[in-house]
Each structure stands twice: as C-alpha cells, then as structure tokens.
Amino acid sequence: MINEEIRAKEVRLIGSNGDQLGIKPFREAMQIAQDAGLDLVNVAPTAKPPVCRIMDYGKFRYETQKKEKEARKNQKVVELKEVRFSATIDEHDFQTKLRNVVKFLKEGDKVKMSVRFRGREIAHASIGQKVLERVAAEVAELSIVERHAKLEGRSMIMILSPKVQVQ
User: Fold this and answer.
1) CATH number for the domain including 41?
2) At which of 43, 72, 101 does a domain end?
C-alpha cells in the first residue's frame, strides 16, 4: 500500500536514506513524504505500528521488475527429452541415438529413453532392458539413473538426469 491507501493512525517511519524517524501520526508522515517529493510506502503492514518508508515508488517498482527479469533470464529450465529405441536396434542406429542422448545431457536436460515392443517382442522384454542398460553404461560419466528400466504397457522406460557440473 502506498500514500492514501494506508489505513493506520500511527506509523513507524523510515526516511528515504534508511534512518529511523520514529513513530509518527499518519498525516505527519504523509506530509514529510510529500515535502520530499516522494511516496509513503507500507513495507511491513502486519507490524504494530505498521512500518512505512519514504521512497520513490515508481523507481522502486522499476528496479524490482528489472531484477526479476534478470533472474528469469539466468535460470535454466530442465526439459525432458525423449529418445526411442527398438529392441532389435542395429549398431549404427544405436550410436546415432546415443549421440543425441549425450548432447541432451550436456545441455542439462533430462533424457527419457524408451523401447517400444511391437508384436511378439514383448515376450523378450529382457532384450529391451539390455539396450537401455547399455545406453546408461555408455553415458555413466555424464548422467545419473533417475528411474531404472521399467515395463509400462508395451514400452520399457528409463530416465537419466545429468550430473551436476561444478564450475
């Protein structure tokens, strides 16, 4: 709340440079803020009496929005990328898909690897599990197994997450 929106008889007043001005009646605090050409901002409404600060509210809002925007720009959103294998995958195809898994892990994304069983392949689920475990072994220095291979319907799924790089 700022200026006239504040509904308190007395406020603890903090000056524009951060010094304590003590407990003042609201009208007097409002007058001090207007004389300085600044706003009276309620920074702690639950305190007894409420704490108000004299500041340029527009400039304060602009700076906080700028800080929030900077924080959003610097944060990394971890995505879940999926790479599909087949139980009877050939060596060259395996290496190509493995390169994609390595690329995703280096970018900091989680990787969901799935083996889709078609027809009677489901009877040999252990073959699909060997494929997933082979991928996990190949990228062991880059990743941690977040979820081990598990059969869900006609698919076997394993999730890898990247190891945290200390810089």
Assistant:
1) 3.10.20.80
2) 72
Q: Is 107 helix (H, G, I), strand (E, B) or coil?
A: coil
- Tell me, yes or no, whether 44 and 25 share the same domain: yes
Per-residue pLDDT of the chain (167 residues; tens, 9 = 90+): 777 777 778 888 888 888 888 888 888 888 888 888 888 888 888 888 888 888 888 888 898 899 999 888 887 777 899 999 998 899 999 999 999 999 999 988 899 999 999 988 889 889 999 999 999 999 999 899 999 999 988 999 999 999 875 44
Q: Are residues 27 and 47 in the same domain?
A: yes
Q: In whole angstroms, what is the distance from residue 10 CA to residue 49 CA? A: 6
97, 131 Cβ separation under 8 angstroms? no
3-state secondary structure of 162: strand
CA dist list (Å): 107 to 77, 78, 80, 101, 143: 11, 9, 11, 10, 12
Determine the structural domain holding residue 117 and report its residue range. 80-162
pTM above the 0.85 mark? no
